[in-house]
Design a protein that fits this description.
The protein contains 17 helices and seven strands. By secondary structure, it is an alpha/beta fold.
């Protein structure tokens, strides 16, 4: 009897232990799941903290400390001006605006009178300074004559651009355009600067009207710029967000080394690129961009990718101990150096293509397979997403090494689109889509003018007077 009781107690104890074991196993499973989630969150947070301009698209201005450049810099030797550098030292003018003769002593220290001794120019020094700044006011007076025969009153005609009793001329309007689009000042800042310089108030409505007038006047010029870009062998494309009417709009660019075209659209992708404003839909040569998927919808153009973007993504993977990313980074940098920093091409690219494909195969083994989610597409790691792009667009990645005229990066577009960031940071946002459109067209003209070493202020004045160097050159053809 006692034995059966002991067996029963032992049985109950085993059942209790098994029940506790099941609970412990379930708890261990929960903790393992929670631990995996925490590890994933920790990795994402660490990656965010380690994000900088070298391993992501984050601008250098947001780096918390000095980051080494993405491309190695060659030593330039001693500091200061280098041999062959064209200096810009201030030189004396051969046509000074004012001559001032210094008083020369007429009595020598020995007491002799020197008033009759002829003077000889010994030395001259020049002072470059700003003259007293005043607004130049032109008053046009209209007179009349009355015919004694028919009593008809005959009047002189005012200039066509002078439609009001008092108004600003093309110089003031051009200054408003330059300060607003070229130097990114807000309307209030332009008014304050104008008041400080000329002691004359300039209200916001005047600045807006000046931009509207330049926008209308530059419409023919913009068409000429677009035609030149469409005829170019290589064109850079890019886009960036901007704040407009409390929403995110997008500034798109198509540019070359001589021409810049910008336009604003509410969308970033296909709708914007197929809109009447865009020109990529009509482009048939080589389009350089950062692998934004919408660009590949246009099969009429060939494509070259910005390798600077790829290098940054590879660098981020390298910092997370990716082996294949280090090899691919080294291969692209090797090709960059062999092609004279993307300025020439390689006669035999086959060995490097084979190495490229071998690294991609290694990456396929190293990167985890996509994980199926309850809904939607399987989730892939950042490394696998990058690998898929490298495999799919191999020819576009290596195009710089195959052709002389295809660059290694898309830096041209990055530089041409950057001014809007200064405008947004300084002025805050665009209050209307019209204001954003005005900025885009005027900035396009300013950028194209500077690329061709023309005087921006002078050409803006000419624009308000009905012509500029672009329309004149085009009309002469």
């Amino acid at each position: 009897m006692e034995l059966s009781n002991d067996i029963l107690e032992l049985k109950n104890l085993v059942i209790s232990l098994l029940s506790k074991l099941d609970k412990l196993q379930a708890r261990v499973g929960e903790l393992e799941t929670e631990n995996a989630q925490l590890r994933s969150e920790n990795a994402e947070l660490r990656q965010g903290l380690n994000t900088n301009s070298r391993n992501s698209n984050q601008p250098p201005s947001k780096d918390l400390y000095k980051i080494k450049p993405a491309f190695p810099k060659t030593s330039k030797g001693k500091q200061g001006g280098q041999i062959g550098h064209k200096g810009r030292t201030l030189a004396q003018s051969v046509t000074p605006d004012e001559l001032i003769d210094l008083a020369t002593p007429t009595v020598c220290s020995c007491g002799l009178d020197l008033s009759e001794v002829p003077l000889k120019l010994q030395q001259k020094r020049q002072l470059f300074d700003l003259p007293k700044v005043n607004l130049y006011v032109k008053e046009y007076r209209q007179y009349s004559r009355v015919c004694p025969c028919c009593k008809n009153r005959l009047l002189g005609n005012f200039p066509t651009e002078l439609s009001q009793p008092v108004q600003y001329g093309s110089g003031v309007l051009a200054l408003c355009n330059l300060l607003s689009s070229g130097f990114h000042l807000s309307c209030q800042q332009i008014g304050q600067l104008f008041s400080d310089l000329y002691d004359q108030p300039l209200n916001t409505a005047t600045v807006i009207a000046a931009n509207e007038r330049a926008y209308q006047a530059l419409a023919p010029t913009e068409n000429v710029v677009k035609e030149h870009i469409l005829a170019s062998e290589v064109v850079h494309f890019d886009e960036t967000g901007l704040a407009c009417q409390g929403k995110t709009h997008w500034l798109h660019t198509a540019c070359t080394g001589l021409w810049t075209f910008l336009f604003v659209h509410a969308k970033r992708g296909k709708k914007a690129l197929e809109s009447p404003k865009s020109i990529i839909k009509d482009f048939t040569k080589v389009a350089i961009h950062d692998c934004w998927a919408s660009y590949f919808n246009f099969d009429n153009a060939s494509h070259g990718l910005c390798n600077a973007h790829l290098l940054r993504e590879l660098q981020a993977l390298i910092e997370n101990n990716s082996l294949w990313a280090g090899k691919m980074h080294a291969l692209l940098m090797k090709l960059y150096q062999l092609t004279d920093k993307g300025k020439s091409h390689l006669e035999n690219l086959i060995p490097y293509i084979q190495e490229y494909q071998s690294i991609c195969q290694e990456a396929n083994r190293e990167e985890p397979q996509p994980t199926q989610k309850p809904r939607g597409k399987p989730k892939s790691s950042k490394g696998r997403n990058l690998l898929n792009r490298l495999v799919q667009h191999q020819d576009s990645v290596l195009a710089f090494a195959k052709y002389d005229y295809i660059p290694f990066t898309n830096n041209q577009a990055e530089r041409d689109i950057r001014p809007v960031k200064g405008k947004i940071k300084n002025a805050g946002c665009f209050r209307s889509t019209d204001g954003a459109d005005h900025f885009a067209r005027i900035q396009s003209f300013i950028s194209s003018t500077r690329k061709q070493s023309q005087s921006v202020f002078k050409e803006l004045i000419n624009t308000h007077q009905g012509y500029n160097f672009i329309t004149i050159a085009y009309a002469s053809k």
